[in-house]
């Protein structure tokens, strides 16, 4: 019984359960940067739950084609591969913009955000092409329950990306006009969370809708 | 504006939490490297997904399982390298919120599929029922 257990060492407590010397009730509020990002994190998780509803509806209705085309008849996998690449590169460029923000480099921020926007626009163009193509062939959302669920799910993601593009350009304008002010840096952090989260949803989407739809 | 939390990576003392999406304080080169690793891994996993479907080398009924495993892995890569979710003590709040979100998503998905499959079976027309029993 010579060595004291690790958790009773002074300054031990590796998981910080005691939160240092100051009791948690007397530490005051967390910095605004953390409160804001955490609140947005909760919103993103609720957004995932929204998408889970669309995913569940799609999974239930995927086989209800009402005599119309099934997924493997209409999905264009090379186009989906391009969309995936565009969105992944866009997410990477958004990460570069976040680094430029920590480095306080306006030029690199604007360059990275412009690249993010370009890849995002390329993604949206592919999706728009796909939708117009499908509707033009008579396979619009009113064709079957499967296509209703497909357009609702993929369209909901596309709508998120569209809104993200608006936010993105707003952040570029705000940094251009006002620089890296504290409140603007917090907005950039939230935007980065949003953009990466959309890429995570796209991973689920291309797997469940396009790849599994083509496999079945 | 008299905001005082001046930088993204300020040290708030030993017990400080990390904001969601915030990376640990490190040099720019290290940060870029982190995103680069994430991009590389995500690209490999994406290619593996498309390959698993197209190559025909994987036993047919196993393809959905392989695709879902690859997707979960890629979402993990995104969370770790892009959203900087870690198992560290300063990330506990973020991870717990995420875990709760994943729980609800799983309940909605699994619950819906389970209930609807049963309903589909119970509401089956007589013709389908006879066909199934043949």
TrEMBL record, chain A:
Membrane topology: Multi-pass membrane protein
CDD domains noted in UniProt: Ubiquinol_oxidase_III (cd02863)
One record GO biological process: aerobic electron transport chain
Compartments it resides in: Cell membrane
Region spans: Disordered: 1-22
InterPro entries: Cyt_c/ubiquinol_Oxase_su3 (IPR024791), Cyt_c_oxidase-like_su3 (IPR000298), Cyt_c_oxidase_su3-like_sf (IPR035973), Cyt_c_oxidase_su3_a-hlx (IPR013833), Cyt_c_ubiqinol_oxidase_su3 (IPR014206), Ubiquinol_oxase_su3_dom (IPR033946)
GO cellular component terms listed in the entry, alphabetical order: plasma membrane
GO molecular function: cytochrome bo3 ubiquinol oxidase activity; cytochrome-c oxidase activity
Domain of life of the organism encoding this protein: Bacteria
Heme-copper oxidase subunit III family profile domain mapped to chain residues: 36-214
Regions that span the bilayer: 35-59, 79-99, 111-132, 144-168, 188-212
Keyword annotations from UniProtKB, A to Z: Cell membrane, Electron transport, Membrane, Oxidoreductase, Transmembrane, Transmembrane helix, Transport
Subunit (UniProt): Heterooctamer of two A chains, two B chains, two C chains and two D chains.
Biological role: Cytochrome bo(3) ubiquinol terminal oxidase is the component of the aerobic respiratory chain of E.coli that predominates when cells are grown at high aeration. Has proton pump activity across the membrane in addition to electron transfer, pumping 2 protons/electron.
Entries under NCBIfam families matching the protein: CyoC (TIGR02842)
PANTHER family, per the entry: CYTOCHROME BO(3) UBIQUINOL OXIDASE SUBUNIT 3, CYTOCHROME C OXIDASE SUBUNIT III
Family: Belongs to the cytochrome c oxidase subunit 3 family.
Protein name: Cytochrome bo(3) ubiquinol oxidase subunit 3
Species the sequence originates in: Sphingomonas jinjuensis
From TrEMBL, chain B:
Keyword Lyase (UniProt): no
A Pfam entry, by short name: COX4_pro
Alphabetized GO MF terms: cytochrome bo3 ubiquinol oxidase activity; proton transmembrane transporter activity
Subcellular location: Cell membrane
Family annotation (InterPro entries): Cyt_c_oxidase_su4_prok, Cyt_o_ubiqinol_oxidase_su4, Cytochrome_c_oxidase_bac_sub4
Stretches the record annotates as Disordered: 1-25
Cellular compartments per GO CC: cytochrome o ubiquinol oxidase complex; plasma membrane
Alphabetized UniProt keyword annotations: Cell membrane, Electron transport, Membrane, Oxidoreductase, Transmembrane, Transmembrane helix, Transport
Alphabetical GO biological process terms: aerobic electron transport chain; electron transport coupled proton transport
Topology in the lipid bilayer: Multi-pass membrane protein
Top-level taxon of the source organism: Bacteria
Transmembrane regions: 34-53, 65-83, 95-116
Record keyword Hydrolase present: no
Residue spans of biased composition, Basic and acidic residues class: 1-12
Record function comment: Cytochrome bo(3) ubiquinol terminal oxidase is the component of the aerobic respiratory chain of E.coli that predominates when cells are grown at high aeration. Has proton pump activity across the membrane in addition to electron transfer, pumping 2 protons/electron.
PANTHER family with a match to the protein in the record: CYTOCHROME BO(3) UBIQUINOL OXIDASE SUBUNIT 4 (PTHR36835)
Protein family: Belongs to the cytochrome c oxidase bacterial subunit 4 family.
Complexes and interactors: Heterooctamer of two A chains, two B chains, two C chains and two D chains.
Protein name: Cytochrome bo(3) ubiquinol oxidase subunit 4
């Amino acid at each position: 019984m010579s060595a004291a257990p690790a958790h009773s060492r002074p300054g031990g407590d590796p998981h910080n359960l005691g939160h240092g010397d100051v009791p948690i009730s007397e530490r005051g509020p967390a910095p605004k940067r953390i409160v804001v990002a955490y609140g947005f994190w909760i919103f993103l998780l609720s957004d995932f739950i929204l998408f889970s509803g669309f995913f569940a509806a799609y999974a239930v209705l995927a086989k209800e084609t009402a005599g119309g085309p099934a997924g493997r008849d209409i999905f264009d996998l090379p186009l989906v591969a391009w969309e995936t690449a565009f969105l992944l590169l866009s997410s990477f460029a958004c990460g570069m913009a976040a680094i430029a923000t920590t480095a306080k480099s306006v030029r690199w921020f604007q360059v990275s955000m412009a690249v993010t926007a370009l890849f995002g626009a390329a993604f949206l163009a592919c999706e728009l092409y796909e939708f117009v193509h499908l509707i033009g062939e008579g396979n619009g959302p009113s064709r079957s329950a499967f296509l209703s669920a497909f357009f609702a799910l993929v369209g909901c993601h596309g709508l998120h990306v569209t809104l993200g593009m608006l936010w993105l350009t707003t952040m570029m304008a705000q940094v251009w006009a006002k620089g890296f002010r504290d409140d603007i840096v917090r907005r950039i952090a939230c935007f980065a969370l949003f953009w990466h989260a959309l890429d995570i949803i796209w991973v689920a989407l291309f797997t469940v809708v396009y790849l599994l739809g083509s496999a079945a | 504006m008299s905001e005082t939390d001046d930088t993204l990576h300020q040290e708030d003392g030993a017990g400080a939490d990390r904001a969601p999406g915030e990376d640990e304080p490190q040099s720019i080169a290290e940060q870029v490297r982190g995103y680069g690793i994430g991009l590389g891994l995500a690209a490999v996993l994406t290619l593996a997904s498309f390959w698993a479907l197209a190559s025909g080398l994987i036993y047919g009924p196993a393809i959905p399982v392989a695709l879902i495993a690859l997707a979960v892995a890629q979402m993990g890569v995104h969370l770790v390298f892009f959203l900087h979710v870690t198992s560290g003590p300063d990330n506990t709040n973020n991870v717990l919120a995420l875990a709760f979100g994943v729980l609800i998503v799983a309940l909605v998905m699994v619950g819906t599929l389970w209930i609807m499959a049963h309903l589909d079976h119970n509401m089956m027309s007589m013709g389908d029922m006879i066909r199934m029993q043949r």
